[in-house]
Write a structure and sequence with these properties.
Chain lengths: 175, 625
């Protein structure tokens, strides 16, 4: 069953998160294993399976990048795998610069300021790509979907940088 | 077993009897049991009117003492008196000795799940916990006047798979049916949530004797959705005590190693001093070092606060991370629930209040709140409240992954994923003709295998010989609603059934549990048989009730032929179950009869579930939900 149908939501990249969350909770009230705690093993196993499916669908629709990936896959677009070499050299060079920026953070004079600036840089560049993705998802044709899938891949690079920044931040401010 | 009637479609089934159920807070230092009596959850007390059972078990020559009776031996007989077994459960000897270097116990046996040498032989921490569970369930059965259908046992949200599994094993040893392992902070939120009907984001700060948990939840119309959880399964009020112990050792000029009795005395004095400082500005500490040799000192509240500050700050860092993981801002948190005896320490309250900028919720006794929440949930899970709107959606506290090349961990299920969850990942061979593959399952957030916790090792055998990279091995991780992991693997292209050998890295293997069970029984073989028979009879009853209710509600989804086949299989099951006490092959016969019913109803059950899921959202606009 299509995840949007499961949650009774329109097939659209723009999603009402409050409605998604409310629908998710209503579904779990029917399927969660806790509702079958005194039922037979068969029913309990079935509940675990259904409840896990609902959880998975919820995670995918809730997270924009996963949602885009799911929709593109449903539209029959092949996602370029992460291992496939990247053609966009400009983008790759920018990624290397950003990596260097993160590596330099612990050596900055004003660490707080540098971390904030890094956060802002990553956020801005992510947002620019994300806006493009929003438009492309709406265009919904073979050509736009192909570009969208490349943008999804680029956004994943930014996600990794964001995680890296969080890790550095934790290390710097933890002790 | 009572004769059960088969209901026809449309005919309602007999209403259920009230099933006795209880919630157990199996704590590091103290344990409690609570139950819902005439609609109200309350903790149950023993004959001496005590609700708190110290989590202490003493192995004396002819008896096993639990609770206060065991506590009196904790100084005079420390080697045979096990305190804080919860800190040892599901832990390796290396882990334990690194964290608690001065324990009086002598560890023996497998160093991945060490036993403690007592005068009653080698005892595993799982067995210690099972003694506490036995004592509490006996108390409940006496107070409630009947056998318990099942219990909800609480665990720290931050417990990993090995610690959860060990807790469940302890229940199995104690012979109690676990309806659910419930995270302590979630239980506390249930206890409060019901009273106030709050909607919005709340934080539960739970500092117990040995563990610290922080959970961020969103409450909405009876649903408790855990957004994120964090903490430290080895940080608790006991650590405040240890700091005072170290201070005393230094001030009194004592040289380690100290006698085990003196270590226990130091610990008791430290704990006493900490408790006094919750209400006083200073406390006198007196140690008996030897006969006629006392050491006296004064500890001020200010100095204690200086000692404790780094520990409290550590908990606040975990709070910060949990809030971030939850994707909310600190201003969205409308309530902060305080749980655990250690939240009585004024420094803790003060710093937590400052951090969240909210008045803390402390109206329910922090020692009892978890047990009360667990009791409410147990009552629901036992089926006593079919119309209850409460639903607890919990998360997995630590990421699950497997070892890849170069000692790195690839995460398969990230932390804070709502459970139950199932995720599959494909792997391939890296050598030509490779027919076996080792799979190492880990839990934790770090990138290197050595920094994560090893959960299990698998050997996948019988992969057909192919060129490197041609085999597709699909590894499926399933985490159930208790937070327990099950891993399965298969080679996809060949569909060849591959054998899997599971070896838990920590905790006990199934056959070890069975051996402990049989060892503990007087007439091992017969007792074991009787217990297995009873379990099958209970399952048979559940199958009957489930299928009857299903037929009554949705029997018209089936053809008459299908209904008849199912009814016949049910009649057979009833008959076999009724005669199973006298039948030497009773256990196996019930199993076969259940399987027959299961096979006949598999499609029906799935159809009903799918229909109910579809109907959950149809007939009402999403806006109205």
């Amino acid at each position: 069953m299509n995840y949007f149908d499961l949650f009774a939501l329109p097939h659209s990249f723009e999603i009402d998160l409050a409605k998604l969350s409310a629908a998710f909770q209503s579904l779990q009230k029917m399927a969660h294993p806790d509702k079958f705690a005194h039922a037979s093993s068969q029913q309990q196993l079935l509940a675990v399976q259904k409840s896990a499916n609902i959880n998975d669908a919820y995670q995918i629709l809730k997270t924009p990048i996963k949602r885009a990936e799911y929709m593109l896959q449903q539209r029959g677009t092949d996602m370029p795998s992460e291992q496939t070499s990247f053609q966009d050299t400009l983008f790759l060079m920018r990624q290397m610069e950003l990596h260097e920026m993160l590596e330099e953070l612990p050596h900055a004079d004003d660490i707080d300021g540098a971390v904030n600036a890094a956060n802002e840089t990553l956020d801005n560049e992510y947002q620019i790509l994300f806006c493009q993705l929003q438009q492309l998802m709406q265009d919904n044709n073979t050509a736009s979907d192909k570009i969208a899938s490349e943008i999804v891949r680029k956004l994943k690079f930014y996600q990794k940088l964001q995680l890296e920044l969080e890790r550095i931040e934790e290390q710097l401010f933890d002790e | 077993m009572a004769l059960l009637q088969i209901a026809e479609p449309g005919q309602s089934t007999v209403p259920h009897d009230h099933r006795l159920a209880a919630g157990i807070d199996l704590g590091t230092t103290n344990s409690l049991i609570a139950s819902v009596k005439s609609g109200l959850a309350e903790t149950l007390s023993d004959d001496d009117n005590r609700t708190i059972l110290p989590s202490i078990v003493s192995y004396q020559a002819n008896e096993i003492l639990v609770g206060d009776a065991a506590k009196q031996y904790s100084i005079s007989d420390p080697k045979n008196t096990i305190i804080s077994a919860k800190r040892l459960i599901g832990r390796s000897q290396a882990d334990i000795e690194k964290k608690y270097p001065h324990l009086p116990y002598q560890f023996v046996g497998n160093e991945n799940h060490p036993d403690i040498q007592t005068r009653q032989g080698a005892i595993n921490p799982v067995q210690v916990s099972s003694e506490i569970l036995k004592k509490l369930t006996k108390r409940a059965e006496k107070a409630l006047g009947g056998e318990l259908t099942g219990v909800v046992i609480t665990v720290p949200a931050y417990f990993d798979d090995a610690q959860r599994q060990s807790t469940k094993d302890a229940a199995k040893l104690a012979g109690v049916e676990v309806l659910r392992l419930l995270n302590e902070p979630t239980a506390a939120a249930v206890a409060y949530g019901l009273d106030s009907g709050t909607e919005g984001v709340i934080a539960v700060y739970d500092l117990g004797g040995g563990t610290f948990d922080i959970s961020i939840l969103r409450l909405n119309k009876g649903v408790f959705e855990v957004l994120a959880t964090g903490g430290d399964s080895a940080l608790g009020g006991d650590d405040f005590d240890l700091l005072i112990v170290e201070l005393l050792v230094e001030q009194a000029g004592l040289a380690r190693p100290l006698s085990v009795n003196l270590e226990r005395q130091l610990l008791q004095q430290a704990c006493f001093a900490k408790e006094q400082l919750s209400t006083q500005d200073h406390v006198e500490i007196v140690l008996t070092l030897a006969e006629n040799n006392e050491y006296k000192t004064t500890l001020t509240k200010d100095f204690f606060n200086t000692l404790a500050k780094p520990l409290v700050s550590k908990t606040l860092r975990a709070c910060k991370r949990a809030i971030k993981d939850a994707g909310v801002s600190i201003d969205e948190v409308i309530e902060v629930v305080m749980v655990g005896g250690s939240t009585r320490v004024p420094l803790v309250r003060n710093d937590v209040e400052k951090y969240f900028k909210r008045t803390l919720l402390t109206s329910i006794d922090p020692d009892k709140v978890v047990a009360i929440g667990a009791a409410i949930q147990a009552d629901i899970l036992a089926g006593n409240k079919p119309d209850s709107d409460i639903l607890l959606l919990d998360v997995i506290p630590l990421s699950l992954g497997i070892e890849t090349m170069g000692g790195l961990v690839e995460k398969i299920i990230p932390r804070n994923t709502t459970i139950p969850v199932a995720k599959a990942q494909e792997f391939t061979t890296f050598k030509d003709g490779q027919t076996a593959m080792a799979i190492h399952v880990l839990q934790g957030e770090r990138e290197l295998v050595d920094d994560c916790r090893s959960l299990a090792r698998f050997e996948l055998r019988g992969i057909p010989a192919m060129t490197a990279g041609a085999a597709h091995i699909r590894v499926t991780f399933k985490v159930d609603a208790d937070g327990l992991l099950e891993v399965t693997a298969m080679e996809k292209s060949s569909k060849v059934a591959t054998s899997i050998a599971v070896k838990p890295s920590f905790g006990l293997a199934d056959d070890e549990i069975t051996k402990m069970l049989t060892d503990s029984m007087a007439n091992a073989e017969q007792d074991m048989q009787a217990r297995m028979l009873k379990e099958q009879q209970v399952e048979a009853k559940r199958v009957l009730e489930s299928v009857q209710a299903a037929l009554a509600a949705d029997g018209d989804l089936l053809s008459e032929q299908e209904r008849n086949d199912i009814s016949n299989a049910l009649f057979q099951l009833v008959e076999i179950t009724q005669n199973s006490d006298q039948n030497p092959t009773g256990i196996k016969d019930i199993e076969v009869a259940i399987e027959k019913v299961d096979n006949l109803t598999a499609y029906f059950a799935e159809l009903r579930m799918d229909t109910s899921i579809r109907q959950a959202l149809s007939g009402q606009k999403v806006d109205d939900i």
